[in-house]
Amino acid sequence: MNRMQGELHHPDNLQVAAAAALLAVNGAVSLLLRLGLGRRLLVAGLRTTVQLALIGLVLRHAFAS
Fold first, then answer.
1. What ranges do the domains of the chain cover?
2. DSSP codes, 19-46
């Protein structure tokens, strides 16, 4: 899929839900196989969400001026 320069992609709710579901599947597999990665996956997912939200706010402010 080619995108024109400057065109933004706004993920819809289905795409966000799919990403969350994949993270949940990883956590379930970790629990099932007793890998001990459940907490690390949860922290990584939350950290990623916070970082993306913050960088979005910074970029919105930077390009608003």
1. 31-65
2. HHHHHHHHHHHHHHTT-S-HHHHHHHHH
The CA distance from 10 to 12, in Å, is 6
Q: Which two tokens stand for residue 32?
A: 């099932």
Q: What is the pLDDT of residues 5-60, one digit of tens each?
A: 667 778 889 998 999 999 999 999 999 999 999 889 989 999 999 999 999 899 99
Instruction: Report the half-sphere exposure of 63 (CA within 13 A, side-chain side).
Output: 6
Burial 25-42 (b: 16+ CB within 10 A, else e): ebbeebeeeeeeeeeebe
